[in-house]
Each structure stands twice: as structure tokens, then as C-alpha cells.
Write a structure and sequence with these properties.
There is one protein chain. 35% of the residues lie in helices and 14% in strands. Helix 4 links the parallel strand 3 and strand 4.
Length: 156
């Protein structure tokens, strides 16, 4: 994202090892993990969940976790989620093509992970017009769930 802001051009994100180091650097510059809840959207949330235990953060928030690549349900990105110790909130749209409830229910996930579903939301939480919900409804619901999660991790 920084590169996009600077150059105005898109392109593939950095490799996971670079992104993980960026998280570690940001956590260190903020004074360490114990007081921090880290997270991100899609790949950002995935990377945050990959560094969480090592960085000893207070919690992780994943907005639209990419449980598998588009159309490749067999290529799960969940191995590290089986043993994750850090309290983690995953917010997922019920229509998210990178992980729907019926797929995720069969995954082995750590008990430290809590998944909340945003009604009729896609990977960006946007619902279909016919659902009667709006994107703003789902964003408000997401904000409330994140605020509740952060408050619940204060004593960790």
C-alpha cells in the first residue's frame, strides 16, 4: 500500500516474509506487543495472525480472512490458525468467496479464534441490495464487534 501511495501504481504485494518483518518492525516501534491489538484486511489480517504469537500481542483482528485463494478451496491458508494462542477476532461476510461458513466449519481452528459473520457481506462486507442491508450496516456491525473485542482483551 505504501508503494501504491508513492508511485500511484498497483502490483503484487511484497512476499509474506517482507510483510511479516514489516509487522514486527511496526510492533517494535510502538513499544512492543503486550499493549497492541494488530490486524488487517484480507492478506494484512493473515500476516498479522502469522506474527501474533511470536510478537506477543494482546490480540488480532482479521477483516475478511483469506482462508483459501479464489476458487481453490483445497488450498487452505489455515495451518498456523490451528495452534494460534493469541485471542483473534475474524470478521467474515457470509458470502465471502475466500471463506464461507460451510467451508470454515470443517477447518481445525484454535479455540483462541472467534469468528463473527456479517450478514450477506462479500469479502469487502458489501451486501447485495436485495438483502435489505447496506455496506454501512455491515461496517457499523464490524466496528461494534472490533470495539467489543478490544475491550475484552484489555486484561490479557
Amino acid at each position: 500500500m505504501q508503494r501504491r501511495r508513492k508511485t500511484g501504481k498497483g502490483g503484487a504485494p511484497d512476499p509474506p516474509r517482507i510483510l511479516m518483518q514489516s509487522f514486527h518492525d511496526a510492533i517494535e516501534s510502538a513499544g512492543g506487543g503486550r499493549k497492541l491489538v494488530i490486524g488487517g484486511k484480507s492478506m494484512g489480517g493473515r500476516i498479522a495472525s502469522m506474527v501474533a504469537d511470536e510478537a506477543a500481542v494482546r490480540g488480532v483482528v482479521c477483516l475478511g480472512y483469506p482462508f483459501h485463494p479464489p476458487g481453490k478451496l483445497e488450498k487452505t491458508r489455515t495451518k498456523h490458525l490451528e495452534t494460534l494462542q493469541t485471542p483473534t477476532l475474524i470478521l467474515q461476510g457470509t458470502r465471502d468467496s475466500l471463506g464461507r461458513a460451510e467451508e470454515i466449519s470443517g477447518y481445525r481452528l484454535s479455540p483462541a479464534i472467534r469468528i463473527e459473520w456479517l450478514e450477506d457481506g462479500d469479502h469487502s462486507f458489501k451486501p447485495r441490495a436485495r438483502s435489505g442491508r447496506t455496506e454501512a450496516d455491515n461496517i457499523r456491525a464490524a466496528i461494534a464487534l472490533v470495539a467489543e473485542f478490544i475491550a475484552a482483551t484489555k486484561n490479557r
